[in-house]
Amino acid sequence: MPSIRAPFIITARPAEDAEVTELPAVGRTTFDKVFAGGAIEGTSVVHFVSTAAESGPLAYVALERVEGTLDGRAGAFVLQHAGAIVDGVPSLDLSVVVGSGTRDLVGLTGSGTIEHTEAGAHLDLDYAL
User: Which SUPFAM superfamilies match (predicted)?
Assistant: First the structure.
């Protein structure tokens, strides 16, 4: 199974107002990503729903539509995110939505993780076509 690393730059759009004024709150925002200089070249839009308490973030779910090239293969696919923070330690389940691949990416499956460091952010993805 091939494994790739794809650096990206992420920009948040203005967040929507939380649906409740009491904690824990649930909020939505959208992020735009640009992938460049790695195994993915292209853009994505992340639709992000999260919950937070007074102590900080608790969990999030998101769907991310990636469009561009993956190791030179053109098309689009969707990533499904499910993340949580327990005792200050983040965890993330990230997978390609089965059946979401288009054009050269039809049949794409995979799973991975996202890492944010001082040097930047990147997606690590193990995939099969």
Answer: SO1590-like
